[in-house]
Amino acid sequence: MLTVQQRHIIAATAPVVAQHITTITTRFYPAMFDRYPEIKPRFNPRHQQTGAQPRALGQSIVAYALNYDDPIARDAVLAPITHKHVALHVQPDHYRIVGECLLEAAAEVLGAAFTPDVRDAWQALYWSMADDLIDGEERLYHDQERRPGGWRGFREFDVVDRQAAAEGILSVTLAPADGQPLADFLPGQYIGLRLKHDGHLHYRQYSLTGQPGSATYRITVKEEAHGQISQAIHHGLTVGQSVHLTAPIGLLTLDRRTTPVVLLSAGIGQTPMLPLARQALAQGRQVTYLHSTRSPATLVFREELESLRAEYGDRLLIIHRFSHEDPAGEPSGRIDRALLEDVITVDKTPDCYFTGPAGFMSDMNALLEELGIPEAHRHYECFGPLQLPTS
C-alpha cells in the first residue's frame, strides 16, 4: 500500500517516468538476462529485437500508475497480464528479479532525478502491482487445478497428428501423455507451450483451434522466417514426440448474448476466430467473418468455414481479402473502412473481435471507433507482448 506522500511523488514524477519508460525497459531486459540467464527463455527473442516487449512492459507500468486509484481501470490493466503470466507459469520469485533489475535501470536512466524518495515511491508502486498480479495469478492457478481434467503448471502432451493447414502453416494435435481426462476450454482461449530445442527450454503461447469437448488439443502454427520455435515445430516436432502445456487460459471469449458478432483477423491472427465463430453460431447469433491474408495459398480453415456456412446459411457471412494479387480472381486488398461500412450494422451494436499484427489491430480499433462501435464492444487479443491498439 502506498503512503499519501508516495502517491504525491508518483503523480508528480509520472510524466518524467512515462517519457523515459521505454528507454528504462529497453535497458532493463539485457541487464536482467545477463544477471539471471535462467529467466531469458521465457521471453521471445523476436519481441526483444522489435522492441515490442519493452514497450509493453513500459505501457503496463505507466497505465497501472495512472489508474492506481481506480480499481476497475486498474483491474482492466492487470487481467490480460495475469493470463499471459499463467501461460508462462510465472512464479512469485520472478517478480523479485524483475523489480531488482527494473529499479536499477530506472536509476541509470533518470540519474539525479531518481532520488531516494522517488525510488522508494516507485518501488512501492512496483510491489503493489506485483502483489496484485501474484494474487490474480494464484487464483487462476487454483481455478485451473480444480476444474475437471485440469492441472497446475506444465503437463506432458504427445504429438498425435500433424497436418498442413496452408502454405507455411501447420496444425498440430496433442494428447495428454498420462492418458487422463483433459480440461475443456472456451473458444478463443490459448495454451502455453514449453519446448526443448537446441538444449534449451523455450516458452510460447498458441490459440486452441480445435473443438471444445474433445480428448485432444489442436494448435495451428505459422512458420516465421525469424521464428526459431515455429521452425522447430514445423521441421523438428514429429508424431510421438512430447511437449509440455499449461492449461487453457485467455480473455478473448464470448458472452452469451444475442448481439451480432464481427470477427476481424489478419494473417495467423485467424487462429482464435474459428472457435469463436462456431460458438457464436451455436448461440444463434449472426456472424460476420472477415479475414485478410497474403494469398489463397495461406488461407487456413477454408473447409471448416465452408462447412459452417453450409450448416448455418445466411447467419454466417465470410469475406476473405488477399493483400497480394490473386490470379484466381478472388477479391484482393485489405479490410478497410469501406468494407466495414458495408457489413457492419452499427445500430445493432455488434461485438467486434480482432486479432493479428499490431498495425492491423491499431487500424481496426481506430476504424471501429470511427464507425461508432463503443469501446466495450471492441475486443482484442495480442499475439505476444500486451500492447494496447492505438486509436
What features would you describe in this structure?
It is a single chain. The mean pLDDT is 92. The longest helix is centred in the N-terminal third of the chain and has 32 residues. This protein has 391 residues and is α/β, with parallel strands linked by helices. Helix 1 packs across helix 5, helix 1 crosses helix 6 and helix 5 runs antiparallel to helix 6. The relative contact order is 0.11. It has 3 domains: 143 residues, Globins (Globin-like); 91 residues, Elongation Factor Tu (Ef-tu), domain 3, CATH 2.40.30.10; 121 residues, Rossmann fold (3-Layer(aba) Sandwich). It is built from 11 helices and 11 strands. Strands 4-3-6-1-2-5 form a 6-stranded antiparallel beta sheet. Helix content is 43%, strand content 19%. The two termini are 33 Å apart.
Helical amount: 40-55%
Helix count from the secondary structure assignment: 11
Number of domains: 3
Low-pLDDT regions: none
CATH class of the largest domain: Mainly Alpha
CATH superfamily placement of the largest domain: Globins
Please describe the biggest sheet, giving its number of strands, its sense, and whether it closes into a barrel.
6 strands, antiparallel
CATH topology of the largest domain: Globin-like
- The separation of the N and C termini measures 33 Å
What sort of overall outline do the alpha carbons produce when their principal axes are compared?
globular
- Strands of the widest sheet, in order across it, are 4-3-6-1-2-5
How would you spell out the order of helices and strands? HHHHHHEEEEEHEEHEHEHEHE
Cofactor: heme b
Keywords: Detoxification, Heme, Iron, Metal-binding, NAD, NADP, Oxygen transport, Transport
InterPro entries: Cbr1-like_FAD-bd_dom, FAD-bd_FR_type, FNR_nucleotide-bd, Globin, Globin-like_sf, Globin/Proto, OxRdtase_FAD/NAD-bd, Riboflavin_synthase-like_b-brl
Organism: Larsenimonas rhizosphaerae
